[in-house]
Fold this protein.
Amino acid sequence: MLRIREDRQALARRIEVSRVAVGTVLSLLAVAYWTVQIVRGEYYFSLSENNRIRAVKITAPRGYVLDRNGATLVENEPAYTLHLYRREAKDLNASVDFIVDLLGLSGERVASRVERGRKEPEFVPIPIAENLGIEEVAAVQARAAEHPEFAITVSQRRLYKHGGSAAHALGYLSEATPEQIKNAGNVYRVGDWIGQKGVESAYERLLSGASGERRVIVDSHGREVAEEARLEASPGQNLFLTLDLELQGIAEEYFRDKVGSVVALDPRSGEILALVSSPSYDPNWFTRRVTSSEWNGLLANPDRPLQNRAIQNMYSPGSVIKPFLAYGALARGLVDPEARIFCPGHAVFYGREFHCHKKGGHGLVNLRDAIKMSCDVYFYTLGQRLGVDRIHEILTSFGFGGPTGVDLSFEKSGLVPSEDWARSRRGARWYPSETISVAIGQGPLLVTPMQMARALAGLLEGGRLPTPHLFYSSQDPRTGSQLRYKAEFHDAIALAPEKLAVVEDGMWAVVNEPGGTAYGSRVEGVEMGGKTGTAQVVGKETTVRAGADKSKLKDHAWFAGFGPVKDPLMVVVVFVENGGHGNLAAAPLAKALFEARFGVVPKTPPVPAVRAEAPASPGLERAARREAP
Amino acid sequence: MIGRGLPGGRRLDLVVLGCALALAALGVLFVASATGGTRFEGLAGRQAIWVAVGLGAMIAAILFDYRVLLKFSFAIYCASLLPLVYLLAFGERIANVRSWIRVGHFQFQPAELAKIATALLVAYLFENEDDARLHASTIFKLGAIVGTPALLVFLQPDMGLVMTFLPLVFVGLFFGGLPARGWVAIGVIVVLFAGGGWFLLKDYQKARIGTFLNPDTDVLGSGYQVRQSKIAVGSGGFSGKGFRGGTQSQLRFLPVQHTDFILAVIAEEWGFLGVILVLGLFAGLFLRALKLAQTARDRGGVFLILGLTGMIFFSVMINASMMIGLAPTTGIPLPFVSYGGSSVATAFLAIGLILGVEYRRFANA
């Protein structure tokens, strides 16, 4: 039935209005879309690109470290990490039970790691176990079909092939600290490994190479969908060190049950042939993420294994300082080398009685004999003539009291006293009687073994002080091109050869003449010279610290040797903490090193503990390590 | 006049039909794009099936006399409310709301059908209440008719669906001839109730509205959808990144992209041109349908077209605004285009009813 009333016209008008309204609304929407898509299109386009593209770092393989003969000291090995992908897991608890059973892991630890991982987005795999052995990798892979939620990733891990050998020269890797990240200009990110101490730290930039980058397309879950661009990493340089692994091994074997350090240098160039600080530590600990108990053990060890004694510990040099003072006095014309001084075994200076180490005294001694027999009374007299400020001048000219510039961090400067030092730094004036102690290497005088080695090298080289260094050359692993270290010298003093000859002759006599303090350590086939030293452990604190342990009160033993005497090719400084007398505790190692390098007598066979070749399979090697306590 | 005269004075409007079909085709295409390579792959095929179902319903609605439907509209209306009551009592929650009835593999939102039934009853109301001036009793009846299903849906609770009922009230009031002071009164009431209604909203609904007002507060929560959608739309630029080339959609940064956010996919992959195409097709559909309303042979037919067109228009307006952050994300799909069986099928059913009015324009039966 049709019903049309008058208001049909009004209704038609309203519909016309609504058509205009609809048209207007849709037009306004079109304008709004225009604004978003055309006016601000580029902005949103860049946002969408940021959404989908992630930069993923490609870590460059770190350069190897080798000794001067090409024997590998540090390399990289594959490290296997087990990850759990939650998306693939049907039943998380069953998965955890399975893996705990399969690998014999601690159920609690795995559960807590899964619990922690659950806070991350689901696509982020949860690390379950690191450093899997090759058998464990095989076991997991054999069950991959039933348990696709477990996957193993391979990364490169630093391997110090000889464990604790040369650890202080090599350093170690650990995760970069926030401070290091900042100092390096944010090249590193949290979790990146960085060299700590040793050459790993000193040559970090050479070794680490330049990391590459992959630009990958990811979806909204962060899953990688495709790779858009790739900038390959450029691998780190291989680093050849000046160390000689054979000498290093001999020195370490000698120090197996001793505390102290050894520095062997080539005096002509400053190349460090051996560098030992004992006790040592295994840098591999850090790469495997030290457990807190291991770390605490390292820190709590009273012998401080992490400390590099050759450059970080300062000791009284004892009699080893005598040749330097002898030369200084000669050069200044303050002593006639042939003039004899009578040594009755003791002498009085400034109202105090000072003893010679030889009870009955040496009788009449000239300069040469005083060095050969290490006569204290002779050097007391010399010291009195020199005075502390001249001693200061002489010793600093040989590099004491300042860093050697060795390519290792945290080097200590030692201390060479002077009147000025006593006034301004110590706050108590210098007593002349102290000079008498300093003249035999006691008193406030402190040196590091590295300083001693460098000073001796400088003495032998006519005053040319070489800068000790471990860097021999670097090699680009792709092109093989090498970069050699250019020896640096610190031309401190021009020594007078004829006066030097007297001192060197005295040091020759120390080893090669009956009555010399190290006569027992003469070497067949090569003439070694040197000087022994015995530094007293004094001071109340030391006594208190040592407590009941009387061995800590025993004297420190020094020996600084060189050879061949006619044309020195090697300087060896041996320091044995609480070793007793230098001739007995320190000189024999120098003898062994010279025999190994120059001697005609049978070389000391390689020491298995240090020289053992790394097993072919990294997995087996790791398994063996794990069994060790 | 575009349209085809059929034998016996029957008429079929090809503009409305063509626009609806083109939009549905775009929908199937972009559902395919948005779901390709995901666990939703194959939904485009399903969507095509639903379009076919919708076309069947449309043909039935054209052929069946809408006057008969109007006559029985109260019964139809009551019948359509039953499933809503059932849902409230026994419905299973899907995505936190009880708005779906599951039959085998298929889910259906009975509220969509209730919308059609409500539109029928509103048209029937205004066919009989045909005074030049709008009576208070008519307004009350209108409120009751639309309010009942809206309340049932509100309790589910599905705010998006509730809102799609509102255009019926507006259509009734506006085309029924509410005077200016009536609009003022309604304005005052709405403001008062909006304040009270805030306390009835669920937390996530409040969050969405808060996010809409200040999208930067919650970039990863509720703000995430709006932000990602805007990035998708904006990054499409003038001509888009190409079909299936949208990074926002193909890499799943867009949320619910094959349903509510399908227009953002089109905007990203076909750019501003794609948006103009979609808006143009809707413009063609609405303007043409309103023309048909002007020429309908009876007042019931006029209001039926107005009510249905109003509801579809409202959904389009809100959905298109949602994509670029001009309206809060309320879960309103884009009619014909968004994936969703009930949505597509009822949209075509509505088109069938609109075309049915035109079909019988000169009929005597």
Residues 16 and 267 of chain B are 23 Å apart (CA to CA). Residues 23-359 of chain B form one domain. Chain B has 14 helices and four strands.
